[in-house]
Amino acid sequence: MSDRYELRFSGSGGQGMILAGIVMTEAATIYDDKIAVQSQSYGPESRGGASKAEVIISDGPIDYPKATAIDCMLALTQEAATKYHKDIKDDGILLVDSDEVKDIPTGKFTVYKFPIIETARKELGKEIVANIISLGMITALIGVIKESAVEEAVLSRVPAAFKDLNKKALQIGFEKAKELKANA
Amino acid sequence: MSTDAKPAKKQKLSVPFDYSKYLRKDKLPHIWCPGCGHGIILKALLRAVDKVGLEKDDICMVSGIGCSSRTPGYVDFNTLHTLHGRAPSFATGIKLTNPELNVIVTTGDGDALAIGGNHFIHTCRRNIDMTILVYSNAIYGMTGGQFSPTTPIGSFTHTSSYGAMEPPFDTCEMAKAAGATFVARATSYHVQDLEKTLKAAIEHKGTSVVEILDECPVYFGRLNKMRSASQMMEKIEKEGTVSVKQAENLSPEEIGGRLLRGILHHDTETAEYCDQYAALTERAQGK
Amino acid sequence: MAGKTVRRLLQGNEACAEGALYAGCNFFGGYPITPSTEIAETLSRELPKRGGKWIQMEDEIASIASIVGASIAGAKALTATSGPGLSLKQEVLGYACLTEIPCVLINVMRGGPSTGYPTGPSQADIMQAKWGTHGDHPVITLTPSTVPEIFTETIRAFNLAEKYRTPVFVFYDEILGHMREAVELPEQGVIEVVDRAKPEGKPEDYNPYDTSYEVAPLAPFGKGRRFHITGLNHNDDGFPTNDSTKIDEGNRRIMAKIDNNVSDIESTEEYLMDDAEVIVFAFGSTARSARFAVNRAREKGIKAGLFRPITMWPFPEKALKKAADKAKSIIVPEMNLGQTILEVERVTGHGTIVGLQRVDGEPIHPTEIIELIEKHS
User: Fold this and answer.
1) ipTM for the complex shown
2) Percent residues over pLDDT 90 in chain C
């Protein structure tokens, strides 16, 4: 891992992108042995509009808290993909929701496409866990944070009644990403 | 006809009230002008405090800016002279921190109702236990006689040379509407009523507001052709008001433009703020 | 010494609330304003649990008036706001300076002037901290640059307020307020907590402004020492005075108690400064961009260093002067149109001071600083 591993979760407000960022940071810095910083930017409205959360992971102190050269980015909407992809590194990763993002940004990064929201709806009956499936996928794609740490972080944040649902969502994410990687 | 003198009426012995035990004598004389009603209010307040039986250590008097706000400097309590209009907010911080303190705010019509209007209404709304005395002389005295939110239409002041144009507030109606649970009006003329009203206000648990009509002969009187303080007291405080009791037997036409005097609103049901906060604390602590 | 430490992922504003609680804060008076509201929200949940008092006042002025009142009654009191609220609070801040009432104010800086850019970062309130309220007055302002540092500097703010009987500010920008980092929260007792001095002697002899002390003990209202406090210039006993000697003495004394203790209040970080030829002077989140830039410059063989004021006011004059004397150039990046650069110019008198200013609601990017370092190395 380089001295900074940079992640960006993007979508529209209300899709839980900031929560995904928080959980990833917590996984890295509380449940794994990394140092991590999470920052976010949002407009005054808390629903709709492009929303992003950034997570910087490192083995040492982190100075600049925002993304400079992104290792891995998630985009759940076309707007987010178009607006935020420019900072992705040449050998970086872009994961998009294949139903939402039709106009795939071009660059020297690797693009993974998967119907994330549709999977959440079909397999779990809840669109709301698309962010947790995404989190699982990102975890498996980057291999920087232990899966067990991410699972602990997710479970520490959700009420007891939703633990199973979130655990399943995360597992789906891990598996689907591994399949994508194997078929790449 | 017999000219026998009637037996002399038995004289009731009255011991003069000893104000000195509550006053900071070294801070006197006070700054108030001859004829100003503020001194009458101060004396009535001290008698009321004495009748309630409060300890000096347990009283905190808070004021803003203006003539009325100089009151705390003369009394031997825990005293705080704050900023223009802000006294109720400082007092709220003190009371919530130490609910054992009996908090009295002395303020004026300009201080409480203009620059401090927002603090005044929200303090009433919370119903936090404190007594707010609005010394209402319809003018800004300390700055030299400008019109205030209680200056009657047509009155002359140094900023209303052609007659005041804006309608005045009804302090008591506003306090009641805002949520104060004890609202009364008194005057510096009806001095025994004043003392009784202040005693009841202090004893009430919740926000008490007492508007006290008093006089500023130096500015309001002089500019409105009322030559003396006594003339002002006669005209504004005596003839301009009617007691709640008298008003019961009068038609609205008979009351006319006169203001009601006495306890206008007394609600003992609504919960007081610090008590509510104590209950909230118990909920938070899972008790 | 180290007790049980809990490691938690916290937002800057949450770390601030934790720091306040650690320092013994038992009164919060506030008014909602972005981007500081998480401080009020966190304390609204935590203070009642611990027997503390929390109140949402009717406006910004009332909220600071309530905490000054609370402090007079003996509480350790806090308020939190952002630029527009700070503008409104200036009146009562001056009162607290003159009457010497300890309290802590947090300002999470957002874009201005006016309503400006509520969700974007800024560092444009630095001069308002020093010159915001009328009249000459003392000022202590702390400017942390990490979430863990927000926790420790909030504790230090309470300690300095109690020790010097004066309002103390903690200023950080929206980025720090909302970003999350892991914070080690030590057990009580690990970090020093200072409480105000208690008065001794007979109650009737008590003077709240006793000039035989550098900082006179402050008695709480309602505990047996009856005294007077006024926002007018006053004597040792707290009563107003027209005596020009006393007015002069009082005005100088409230400044001197800070000026004479700069070494106790000052805090700076010097990073790679030993042989630095290009100094970056930066604070808050901008210092993080600067550190990134300094590291990259060093990789390129440029002797760059970071001078970071953690205490902004009083300004770290001696330390900066000493550092600047050896430097070829000083770069001053800040999210305003040139505020701290004025102090850097005044203090160092250096010939090559280069400003880098941004007021678009975006952080200063490290590459912008790297370019200037390269140009002026």
Assistant:
1) 0.97
2) 98
